[in-house]
Structure formats: structure tokens, C-alpha cells
Design a protein that fits this description.
This protein has about 325 residues and is α/β, with parallel strands linked by helices. It folds into 2 domains: about 100 residues, 3-Layer(aba) Sandwich (Rossmann fold), CATH 3.40.50; about 220 residues, Vaccinia Virus protein VP39 (Rossmann fold, 3-Layer(aba) Sandwich). The protein has an 8-stranded mixed β-sheet with strand order 9-8-7-13-14-17-15-16. Strands 1-6-5-2-3-4 form a 6-stranded parallel β-sheet, sandwiched between helices. A 3-stranded mixed β-sheet has the order 10-12-11. The two termini are about 40 Å apart.
Length: about 325
């Protein structure tokens, strides 16, 4: 099973079935049938088919197995893709792809502009690093423009989904280490069953900060990117950081890389760390990458100089910041 990031990877003549008729499935249906794209959607696949106002039918997996054609493609549009894939496997259906990266690339408001930043400023990378890879959604997208991607994700419970989501992506390596400003042991907080946090595209959240929700703590190993890259003899061209409020600590642990190699950076802001941003300004032009609500609220542009965005927002940080070498 492989994921899909570009609809053009599916032949125009293929009939598409969407497995999962929730929010993700509905968004994918709208994307596939939009004017100028108008793909042939044969129906939804659901464990329990429901009557829907859409003009497209809904089938159980067993019903679909009876009517499928050799040129069909099934797109799984749910974070429950492991269970869905297992169901299709049991029925001997192997013509399926995971559509979450496709949804992220075109429909997820939080990822649309970060990916546009990558298209403009990264283009082709020899080595990309994905810190806080989660289930591998962004890793799969980065693999399209990178010869190699090293993904850091200390939460080992996500390894199975990561492997499925990045299957077929060449040059991807998953490393079960946390990243921070110092190397050594760290405590990773995982939600207890029933307290998981997630959304349309992502799995449960884990954090190195003390969370406000019911959790269990596990010991993990933490490294600095400087130490890790020095031990491997590598220099990344691009680094994405999503470390649950600890992005600036990861950047501090990459100071040597920044000063000697200046890789393109993309990280979540949440807050403004002036000491860390001051260090970055010596080597980079900083780009604000706000989410949709911030663009509307502040009359901002999707990608604009950080200082100009802060002037419009009254000093409130954008969701993401990009750093482009001067």
C-alpha cells in the first residue's frame, strides 16, 4: 500500500472509489469532481453504507468487491487507514492508495501555505529532515522533492501508520529520537486511551511538555540536530520542525548547522522567542506563513516578511515561520 500526493498519478480513465465518507471523504469528493478536474467517482465505500444527499452511491466493502473493475482505484480518506486497508486485504482488493497526503497538499488550510513555501524555496533537496513526523503525512510530501528524508518521531506507537503512509516513498528513514537543545534522556507524554487528540489528517498528539490532559510519560532519547548530523556526516538542505511548542529548542540544537550550512527552515511559531529569532535573522530572511483565519483577520498575505506580518497582527505570531538563507 502506498500513499498518493498528486492526483495526476492516477490515470484519467480510472474509476475512483472513496473509502471513508466522513469529513475527509467529503472533502476528497469535492476535490475530485471540481470543475476542471471532473474525475469519475464511482461511489463511497463505508463499513455501514448510508443514504446520502450526494448523487454518488455508497457501498459496503463486500459490495464493492463484487462490482470492482481492473482499472478502479480506491482512495482511503481517513486516519483509520490501517483498519480500512486490512479490510480490503481480506477481500483480496489491492488497488488502493492512502489519500491523506493528497488532502494535506490541496485541502488542509494549515498545510496549504507551508507546502507552497516549500514549492517556492526548496524545490529540489538532497536531504530533508522532518522533526515531529507523526504518522508521516508531511514526510510523504517531502519525499516528492527530496532524494532522502530523515524523519524524527519519538512516539513509537505511530510507527505502523508511518510505515504504511510512506510505503513506496524512496529514501525515507524513520528515527525514534526526540530533538531538542541538548542530548540526553527526555520524557515524552502520551495521551491515555480516550484522551487522544487528533483531527482530520493527524494521529494522536505526544509532547515533551507537561500536558494539561490525562497522559502517561515514557522515557525517550533526545538528540540535538547538530550532534546527530555530525555523527552521520550529513548536511540537510531543508528542515521542518513541528515539536509541540518546543520548536525553538530544536532550532537552538541546530545552531552549528544554521551557521555553517543555513538549510531552509519551516517551523511552528505559537509564540515569539526573540533570542532565537535574532539568531536566525543574522542568516535568514524570515517569512510569515499564517493560517487562513490569520490571513482574514489581519489582512495578511499568505507568505510575507515576518516583521510586516507582526506589524499588521499587533505582534501576534503566525502559525508557521519559514526561514530562507540570505
Amino acid at each position: 500500500m502506498a500513499s498518493i500526493t498528486d492526483i495526476n498519478d492516477i490515470p484519467r480513465h480510472a474509476r475512483i472509489f472513496i473509502y471513508g465518507a466522513g469529513v475527509g471523504g467529503g472533502a476528497l469528493y469535492g476535490f475530485l469532481t471540481a470543475s476542471g478536474r471532473q474525475r469519475d467517482v464511482g461511489g463511497f465505500i463505508e463499513t455501514v453504507p448510508k443514504a446520502r444527499p450526494l448523487t454518488v452511491r455508497s457501498f459496503s466493502p463486500q459490495e464493492y468487491a463484487e462490482l470492482r473493475r481492473p482499472d478502479d482505484v480506491v482512495l482511503i480518506a481517513s486516519t483509520s487507514f490501517e483498519d480500512m486497508a486490512a479490510t480490503l486485504d481480506r477481500l483480496g482488493i489491492d488497488n488502493y492508495r492512502i489519500a491523506l497526503p493528497l488532502l494535506a497538499a490541496h485541502l488542509d488550510g494549515q498545510q496549504l501555505w507551508p507546502l507552497e513555501f516549500c514549492r517556492r524555496h526548496v524545490r529540489k533537496a538532497g536531504l530533508s529532515i522532518d522533526v515531529g513526523a507523526n504518522i508521516g503525512l508531511m514526510t510523504a510530501l517531502f519525499a516528492r522533492f527530496s532524494e532522502r528524508v530523515i524523519a524524527f518521531e519519538p512516539n513509537r506507537t505511530l510507527a505502523g501508520k508511518f510505515a504504511r503512509l510512506t510505503a513506496g516513498c524512496a529514501g525515507v528513514e524513520l528515527v525514534h529520537l526526540a530533538c531538542g537543545s541538548a542530548s540526553g534522556p527526555a520524557r515524552l507524554h502520551l495521551p491515555l486511551p480516550g484522551n487522544e487528540a487528533g483531527d482530520l489528517l493527524y494521529e494522536v498528539t505526544a509532547t515533551l511538555n507537561e500536558p494539561g490532559w490525562a497522559h502517561q510519560a515514557v522515557e525517550v532519547e533526545q538528540v540535538t540536530l547538530d550532534a546527530f548530523c555530525a555523527s552521520r556526516g550529513i548536511r540537510p538542505d531543508f528542515i521542518k520542525i513541528d515539536a509541540e511548542w518546543l520548536d525553538y529548542e530544536v532550532i537552538r540544537g541546530a545552531r552549528r548547522l544554521i551557521e555553517t550550512s543555513a538549510p531552509v527552515l519551516l517551523f511552528e511559531a505559537y509564540r515569539l522567542d526573540e533570542d532565537c529569532l535574532g539568531m536566525l535573522r543574522r542568516h535568514y530572511e524570515l517569512i510569515a506563513i499564517p493560517e487562513h483565519d490569520q490571513i482574514v483577520a489581519h489582512g495578511a498575505e499568505p507568505l510575507m516578511p515576518l516583521d510586516r506580518f507582526l506589524a499588521r497582527s499587533g505582534g501576534k505570531p503566525p502559525l508557521n515561520i519559514g526561514a530562507v538563507p540570505r
